[in-house]
User: Fold these one by one.
Assistant:
Number 1:
Amino acid sequence: MLVEAVSDEGCSIGVRARTPGDPAACPGCGAASDNVHSYQHRTVTDLPIDGRTVRVRVQVRRSVCPTMGCRNTFREQVLGVLERYQRRTTRPITRDHGVPIL
Ligand SMILES: [Zn+2]
């Protein structure tokens, strides 16, 4: 992820980030796509700093698969940071359970 801005929000710290923009692999057929359909934002909580919550707002791309017959639209994944359907980064989960997430 690329961090674009960090802001002090009093009780919390806000981080605005985005993905680097590399082509994303279609989960259906595996083809690489840099054809952006739209952008979406996800907000997740990261490890606290100095007792303050860290909220990371990440811009991710929704891409269109270039393969004829597939044409799947899919949201890119940020492995190791954002996993599908989770609202926290994997770092607190690793800490809480003591088992690394692969
Ligand atoms: Zn595809």
Number 2:
Amino acid sequence: MKEKGSNKQIDSRSTCWYCGQPATQMDHINPVFLGGNNSPTNLVPVCSWCNKSKRHYPIEEWRKKLALKYGYSFSEIQRNFWISRGITLPPDAKFIFYFEKMGWVIS
Ligand SMILES: [Zn+2]
């Protein structure tokens, strides 16, 4: 992960990857409910609000719900990130999560 300027203050291990608030929990990107596992590539730190809001939704389903409230377009980085994890983004989905803005990737 790149760090420069004020971004040094922000720690990807203690910040919610979805919204940027302080993280207090871990979320399964691909829900256990839908076959997600406990591997590091499937876990990200999140705040309680995002964890509750996302619940058992797959990321793209949750993103659609959020997109009804917020209007953003996907970047190239976002699409490549999710494609690398086997997730195809719906062409009309709109919402940028915090980790995508920051350029953080799950490793
Ligand atoms: Zn959050």
Number 3:
Amino acid sequence: MGLDKKFLIENYRRQEDDELFYLLANEYNDLTEVAKEALAEELSARGFAEEVSRVITVHEAGLSPEQQEYYAALVRNLSCPHCNSDKERLNALMIKTREGDFYAVACPDCLSKIAGGSAGENILAASFGSFMSIINSVAVMISINDQLKIVRKGEDTAGFTKFIKTRVGQLELLKNNKYKLIRMLGNPEARVL
Ligand SMILES: [Zn+2]
């Protein structure tokens, strides 16, 4: 085994399962080949070979329209991570910041509150912390209002579709665990599962 890989495995060995799963689910495609192997080996050594293989398959094969719809339906039908209501389908707002794109996933009412400030501030503060000031900029609010119109029509927002695409590894990993799935939707930026 090369030194690089040995070093990487030793590093991964010091991390919690959830941290490694987060890497596998969300950042696998950005890793070097050696890091991919080291991560897969460490998780397999912990007894998660089956999960590793499922998630890698999703990353490597890319999403067919049918699979995209499968994961979208999975998320749409969950109860809202902020108010627990299951009366209306979940949707998402994509919030663009200089640090990257962030997502709020919730029922239409909660998304309106999140976009409207005050009532949404606690949710946003929990999810995005220091990004609040950027979120309040005028340009961002205009784009959020456009997304809210789509939410009110009951159609997938572009943010929802992109969320499904970028988080497909995590959705695959958590698809049989609604509790963890809803918790992830409530705080999509948390770097653990
Ligand atoms: Zn809600």
Number 4:
Amino acid sequence: MAVPDDTQTQADGPTSGFRSLTQAELMAEATARFGQDYLAWAFTCPACGDTATFQDFKDAGATADRVGQECIGRTLGALTKPEPTHTRGCDWAAYGLFRGPWKVTLPAADGKPEREMWCFPLADPPDPARDVPRDGSPSR
Ligand SMILES: [Zn+2]
């Protein structure tokens, strides 16, 4: 079969949001975006767009293993019957019917083999121009 060499239209960036990476790569990327303090690490819910940090989940009383796995709405009452009580987020989970969109490979540990888990994408890094007050000196 012939493969045209200059008609490829594939973009470099993610087209479906899917990514496959190792736990080490995920942690390196999170550190690069948010710094060493993991409480500032944030994931964005692919369903509702809510961005929640480890700190947000901690404040809501959730265990850390929910971060990046579930929308914070689940912790805040999105599943409460008969009326949901959450004030933000939704009931989405990375391990639900529509998984991911990120697939993370965890290393073998404690006698268990390497395994994969799904998670939400990391949030965009905080905007330094907005979040870090400068000391008034004009740049450049
Ligand atoms: Zn959500």
